[in-house]
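Suppose a colleague, Dr. K., hands you the sequence of a protein chain of 250 amino acids and asks what its three-dimensional shape might be. Before reaching for any lab equipment, you can write down a predicted structure in C-alpha cell form. Begin with the sequence itself:
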Amino acid sequence: MSLESITRERDQLVSALKTSVVTVGFLWVLHLVRLFLLQSPGSWGILPRRLDGLLGIISAPLAHSGWGHLSNNSIPLLATIFLLIYFYPRIASRAMVLMYVLTGIAVWLLARGEGWGADITISHVGASGVAYAFVSFLFFLGVFKRSMQSIVVALVILFYFSGMIAGVLPDQLNVSWESHLLGGIVGALVAWMFRASVLDYRSPEPTEEYVDAPFFAADTFAYTKREREVIRQQALEAERLRKSLEEGEL
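The predicted structure, expressed as C-alpha cells, is then:
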C-alpha cells in the first residue's frame, strides 16, 4: 500500500469518526437546550396524520424522552454513522438524508395515532427509527451487493445489533415500535435503491504508464556481431556515396 493510500485511509477514518461523534454530540446538546427551555419532547414529535404533526418528520429524531432514551440511541447511531461514512462515503450523505426523511414520512402515515390504533394523541419522538433504518441499510446492502466489503459490514451489523430485532415487536409499553419497524423497512428499501452504486471509496492504485516498445532494437538478435559490423560499414559507405553525388550535382 502506497503512502498516498495510507493517508487517504487515515483521512477517511478520521472524517467518519468525527462526523459520527459530532452528530451524536449535537443530539445531546439539543437535549440540554430543550430541558433548559422546559420544552416537552412531545412538542417535537410526529403526530400521525395530523397537519400540525408534519414538522415532527424533521424534529422528532432530535428529541428524546429522557437521558436513558438518548443514551440507548447514541450507541447504534455512533456505530452506524461511522460505518456508513467510512465504508460508503460516496453515497452515505444521500442515503442517510433519504432514510431520515422517509422514516419520518412513514411514521406520520402509518403509526398509531388518535383515531387509528389509539384513543389519544400519540407523539412519536426519538432517533431510534432512524437508527433502525441505518442498521437495516448496512445489513441489506451486504445482502444485495454481495461484495466482500459489504458482506463483512453486514456480518458486523448482524453480530452487534441482532438484539434490536425485538424492538419491532408490537404492543410494547411507551415504545414507538412502529418507528423501529418502519425504519427497518425504509433502510432495506434504500439499500435496494443504492445496490448498484459505486460503494468503495478506495480507488485503484495509480500505475506508471509504459510505452509499448521493445527494450532492444527489433533486429538485435538477428545478426552476429561481425555481420552487424559489415552492415554498419555498408551503411556508412552508402552515406558517403550519397553525399558525393549531391556535391557533384552542385
